[in-house]
Write a structure and sequence with these properties.
The protein is mainly α. The protein has one domain: Recoverin, domain 1. It has three helices and two strands; from the N terminus they run H-E-H-E-H. It is globular. Pfam families: EF-hand_5, S_100. InterPro entries: EF-hand-dom_pair (IPR011992), EF_Hand_1_Ca_BS (IPR018247), EF_hand_dom (IPR002048), S100_Ca-bd_sub (IPR013787).
């Protein structure tokens, strides 16, 4: 499997693992995932992921978080400042 495919597969697998089969992360599942899977403290601000404020993070909200984390890590790695937001 190519690197990007493997990275995407890992992200999907992680979401499914922590979502306990219901397709959403509740606050406790989200907390457990962040504590175990995120090493950079500056990225742990992701509690803002629950965009619709239903107390759970669905896959779409989760993917938006992953994009945000990727942008943060890119900026940190390259020193580039990307002002545009998608």
């Amino acid at each position: 499997m190519a690197r990007m495919e493997q990275a995407i597969q890992n992200i999907v697998d992680m979401f499914v693992e922590y979502a306990d089969g219901d397709g959403k992360l509740n606050k406790e599942e989200l907390r457990k995932m962040m504590e175990k899977e995120i090493q950079n403290p500056e990225i742990k601000i992701m509690e803002r992921m629950d965009r619709n404020r239903d107390g759970e993070v669905n896959f779409k909200e989760f993917v938006k978080c992953v994009v945000f984390m990727a942008k943060c890590l890119y900026r940190k790695k390259t020193g580039r400042c990307q002002e545009e937001e998608d």
